[in-house]
Amino acid sequence: MKCIHLSDLHIGKRVNEFSMVEDQVYIFNQILHIIDLEKPDAVLISGDIYDKTVPSAEAVSLCDDFLFRLSKCNVQTYVISGNHDSAERIAFGRRLMGESGVHMSPVYSKGIKPIEMEDEHGTIAIYLLPFIKPTHVRAQFPDETIETYTDAMKVAIEDMDVDQTKRNILLAHQFVTGSERSESEEISVGGSDNVAAYVFDPFDYVALGHIHKPQSVGRETIRYCGTPLKYSFSEANHQKSVTVVELHEKGNINIRTVDLTPKRDMREIKGTYMEVTAKNYYDRLNLDDYYHITLTDEEDIFDALSSLRTIYKNIMKLDYDNKRTATQAVIHANSEVESKSPLQLFNDLYEKQNNQSLSQEQIEFLVPFIEKTWEEQR
Contact, 290 vs 266, CB < 8 A? Predict the structure, then answer.
């Protein structure tokens, strides 16, 4: 069986106040073309379908069009909700949609049963697990000790009672320990959202969403396919792609990628105002792309953003890198409060008061309280 693995579509997203809808329409057309060429049996979409829990009408319309066109591709499509989605909205109409070959994840509850497909090697069981937090799983299993995300995932998977004689696929939307993150991802408080890779041992392939850079973690078959588009300049050097997974007999899986080319790329350039506005410089560039420009002039250029926009019409971000900003960077480096998690800040305070860091036992005791506090605030 052949699968196309997608995730983190973030339909309706705005980056630096630029709507990405036109870019998403373009890349969805490209994905559908790849599906037409590859002729997979299934498409796996691992969460963050929308960018907001209450998406715009434009985003809903685009999602509807994409799913409808997938339903006409002679494939079975499997979709789970991510942390940016409303699980209830994603689950709406799922039984009706399932009859058209588009299978949406329900709101999390215990007793998840797989959807099964058959090929020449036997049965493939596909499990749809929406984004979960410890509080979600504790509500279903009040007698279990669930303090961390790993605990929650372990209990949720054990409840599935996976038949390991079959080939099993899991769609999940979590942060697996060791994954490389980007700026555009929503980072959970305290670094407490880590899930250990070993909990996925019952599955032959784990189709992950949440992390925007394509990568495998733990083992090759626990994989993030990444976003189809770049959603921050921290992703400027990423090569976006779709992941193609071919399952043969049990234990024999081939994984490869097919590159995606965006309508507009994200680029970072640096130099003086005179350098970046020189015709022989910008003539070498695709001026339709999105730009982050860093000026190295010592003096601020009057109305620089408007002036640069006459050349770089899609400039998203303007910075300076000079002696003044270097001095400010030293000052800011001494106050990293905004970039540190609550657990790190608490550890810093504890270390100043006690001349030693928190022990592992203290960290394990503290993390559930941090998680509970932020759950209540949300």
Answer: yes
pLDDT in tens, 2-47: 999 999 999 999 999 999 999 999 999 999 999 999 999 999 999 9
pLDDT in tens, 209-262: 999 999 999 899 999 999 999 999 999 999 999 999 999 999 999 999 999 999
For residue 43, which phi and psi values (nearest 5 degrees)? Answer: -120, 125
Angstrom distance (rounded) from CA 5 to CA 256: 10
Q: Which of 165, 151, 131 is nearest to 49 (CA)?
A: 131
Please enumerate in sequence order all residues whose Cβ is within 8 A of that of 283, keeping only pairs 6 or more positions apart, or say none.
Answer: none
Question: What is the value of pTM for the model shown?
Answer: 0.84
* Nearest Cα to Cα of residue 51 among 229, 267, 289: 229
Measured distance CA(224)–CA(231) in Å, rounded: 16
Alpha helices in the chain (DSSP H): 21-38, 57-71, 87-91, 94-98, 134-140, 149-160, 273-276, 279-282, 304-309, 323-333, 342-354, 360-377
Tokens, residue 180: 């490389």
